[in-house]
Each structure stands twice: as structure tokens, then as C-alpha cells.
TrEMBL record:
Provenance organism: Mustela putorius furo (European domestic ferret)
GO cellular component: ciliary basal body; ciliary base; ciliary transition zone; non-motile cilium
Swiss-Prot/TrEMBL GO biological process terms: negative regulation of canonical Wnt signaling pathway; protein localization to ciliary transition zone
Top-level taxonomic group: Eukaryota
Name by which UniProt lists this protein: Nephronophthisis 4
Length: 211
């Protein structure tokens, strides 16, 4: 907000990065520092790598037939994961925003600053795996708002629909989908895809991630 309570123009904000943080939590804290990977828009890469972050884009009248995706172009290994009911895997979706100069009068007065970057946690999910199964596919709902979360962070609360962009609306009703396997050394190996669907369609995507 600008001074006087006037909301900023959404076009003044730029998304620099979309990050996925994945870590093992033991109920008290993270066992190791979570791994951080960058999600890349589907239009920027060919879908030939290990995972996809996809969502169906709809309108107020009818759903569109096209999908948009953010691609995770790597496979994650979690050797710190053990077979214990207190251990869980935490997923955090983070956006890094940039506010161009001139949006904030204080920033605009400093010529050396080209913009102000800030990171916000958008959504999160938790999975308690049944590692007895050698491999499988999992779909989890992304959560947000004021409810407690494993990182004890302030998580983005979606504003009214009239003030939300299409991407924010899809994140609100999204899910995280991934495939996992247990290696011979009993290390958890995941091939992940964050799947965003409309509120009316929370089912897993019929197109599984490819590796």
C-alpha cells in the first residue's frame, strides 16, 4: 500500500523467482536445512525432465482447455528421512517479488537502488510417508492463511477475488503431486510436480510426471 491506504498497482510488482523448499521435519524442527529449487515456467522449457508443476486455468464462465505449468527440472534425494511417525516432509512454495523504483517513495529517493526484492511464503504442504511401500504417487492439497505451519512463518492469505490475479487464484486451490521411491540404501528419492487445478477439480492430473 502507498501512503494513505491506496493499494499498489499489481502491474508494478514483478515475480523474480518461484521457489520450492523441501525438507524433513521431526516435529520440533527441520533435521537439515531444506533444499531449495527454482520452478521454471512451462513455456520456457521443454517438458522432457523429471517433474512438472501444472495447473488448469479457468475463467468465471468456463474452464480453459489449456494447461500452464512450472517445471522442476531435477530430482530430489532426502537421505535424512527415516522410518518414524514423527518425521514428515514439508513442501513450501515461495515467490520472490521485485518492486520497481518509484513504487515506494523512500526507495525512489535512493538512486543506487533499482528495486526492492522480497520473498513471501505462498503455500505449504506436509506429507507423512509410508516408507514400507517401495514407490508410489502422492497428491496433497496446498495450504495457507493464518493456520499454524511447520516453519512458523506468515503465509500469504489470498485477497478477495476482485483483487486477485489468475495465478493467485490457481495457487489458492492448488495441490502438490509427486512420485517417490525408496532406494536400496533406504533413502527417499522424489520426482515431484506441483499441480494447480481449479477449485472444482482437486483430482490428480491424468498426465503423470515423466523422467
Amino acid at each position: 500500500f502507498r501512503e494513505g491506504g491506496v493499494p499498489l498497482d499489481s502491474s508494478a510488482l514483478e515475480i523474480l523467482e518461484r521457489r520450492l523448499c523441501v525438507g524433513v521435519h521431526n516435529g520440533l524442527g527441520f533435521v537439515q536445512r531444506p533444499q531449495v529449487v527454482v520452478l521454471v515456467p512451462e513455456l520456457d522449457v521443454a517438458l522432457t525432465r523429471s517433474a512438472s508443476f501444472s495447473r488448469k486455468v479457468g475463467s468465471s464462465s468456463k474452464a480453459s482447455s489449456g494447461n500452464q505449468a512450472l517445471v522442476l527440472r531435477s530430482r530430489l534425494r532426502l537421505p535424512e528421512m527415516v522410518r518414524h511417525p514423527a518425521f514428515a516432509i514439508v513442501f513450501q512454495l515461495e515467490y520472490v517479488f521485485n518492486s520497481p523504483p518509484g513504487v515506494d517513495s523512500k526507495v525512489a529517493s535512493v538512486p543506487s537502488l533499482s528495486g526492492v526484492a522480497c520473498m513471501h511464503t505462498i503455500r505449504w504442504a506436509v506429507w507423512n510417508p509410508m516408507l514400507e511401500a517401495g514407490s508410489g504417487k502422492v497428491t496433497l492439497p496446498l495450504q495457507g492463511g493464518i493456520r499454524p505451519n511447520p516453519s512458523h512463518r506468515l503465509v500469504y492469505k489470498v485477497p478477495p477475488a476482485s483483487r486477485s490475479s489468475e495465478e493467485v487464484k490457481q495457487v489458492e486451490s492448488g495441490t502438490v503431486q509427486f512420485q517417490y521411491s525408496l532406494s536400496p540404501e533406504e533413502h527417499l528419492d522424489t520426482t515431484m510436480a506441483l499441480v494447480h487445478s481449479s477449485e472444482a477439480e482437486r483430482q490428480p492430473s491424468r498426465r503423470p510426471p515423466t523422467s
